[in-house]
Amino acid sequence: xxxxxxxxxxxxxxxxxxxxxxxxxxxxxxxxxxxxxxxxxxxxxxxxxxxxxxxxxxxxxxxxxxxxxxxxxxxxxxxxxxxxxxxxxxxxxxxxxxxxxxxxxxxxxxxxxxxxxxxxxxxxxxxxxxxxxxxxxxxxxxxxxxxxxxxxxxxxxxxxxxxxxxxxxxxxxxxxxxxxxxxxxxxxxxxxxxxxxxxxxxxxxxxxxxxxxxxxxxxxxxxxxxxxxxxxxxxxxxxxxxxxxxxxxxxxxxxxxxxxxxxxxxxxxxxxxxxxxxxxxxxxxxxxxxxxxxxxxxxxxxxxxxxxxxxxxxxxxxxxxxxxxxxxxxxxxxxxxxxxxxxxxxxxxxxxxxxxxxxxxxxxxxxxxxxxxxxxxxxxxxxxxxxxxxxxxxxxxxxxxxxxxxxxxxxxxxxxxxxxxxxxxxxxxxxxxxxxxxxxxxxxxxxxxxxxxxxxxxxxxxxxxxxxxxxxxxxxxxxxxxxxxxxxxxxxxxxxxxxx
Length: 500
Description:
alpha/beta, nine-stranded mixed beta sheet, three-stranded antiparallel beta sheet, 34% helix, elongated
């Protein structure tokens, strides 16, 4: 806080500035009309005193009241009669600037007009009075007692100096300015991207900028062509409307688009991605680091020779653990799962092993049997279509289960990217036993561009960069240059699983 000497110097500087402003306002032509600052100060005090008496008088009146009667009441409190022009100026200020009162103009005759104060807001008037002259609480909002001196020069001087004092008090001190500067510098340092964050961005940045495609705002190729008035659509992603016999186009689009669980009966319009060729459209060159297309093998995973597939950096398995409910695939007992020779699929890598709550301990034993050390665990929090946690799940013997576990095991000394993803996935439940697609992104960021395999997979598990094995897949599709398609097909035929 500033010292009294600094406040006094500031007040003197303020007084000098006021004198200079007054001199500038009184300039006329080439000559300067000099006025005594003391006279100007006395005039200002008189004007403020007039305001004070007027405001105090307004507290005592009842509306409506003629302005002439108000003038008589004010003059009773003054030694000299009040100038009518000054009274009109003050009333206009209260009406138009502060909106404290409203004056009605009544015409009594062709030559005579009467001014009447119709409305008066004494609450606003009280606030205005306190701001100008300090807090004053008269008895029942009446005039001050006779023994009180109305011409209180101390109140007027205090009002004149109030603005300067507030500016001094509100101005930040040197210490506060230095602290604020330090905080700003700290904020800039914290907001700046760290070296590690920069390296992560570079690691996962697309080498080919054109490999990222936007959605077309017109959605379908037909609307895109029509809007651009040309024969070909743009190179962005388009969709095809799905119109069935039960679809009512007047209802508009389904909020779930292609993820609707009732597409066979839902009457809203649905969409799917348009994968048809667009002749003449912008072509997207393939990046050198693009993942291989999805590969799969239909076989009996209990008898398949895993050594023919080579080594993988990521192995994912979702075994059909025995549970007491109906599921769209067969069960395997605990010993069958444990005896599977999945350890030969990797020498240096990670395994993502999905497990039910009952089978968590068994899953840890399987990891150890296959040569993996459990190093982490991922949890999938299940939500419904409204993105709310499912609290009435169909699994669980004592409590409703709203989550699933995925144990992560490590073998050897793999080179991977750590500390990128979180160990919690919050995703919507879809078909029975279908896991969230986010798990594939986590695995790819952990070990980008390497070989990956998923055991016990189904049609929806086929993913670019992965080889999927299971007994519900359509045949064999292998494009990996490290594998012999003929040899793999023969091995699959030995343990082929047919479907009715």
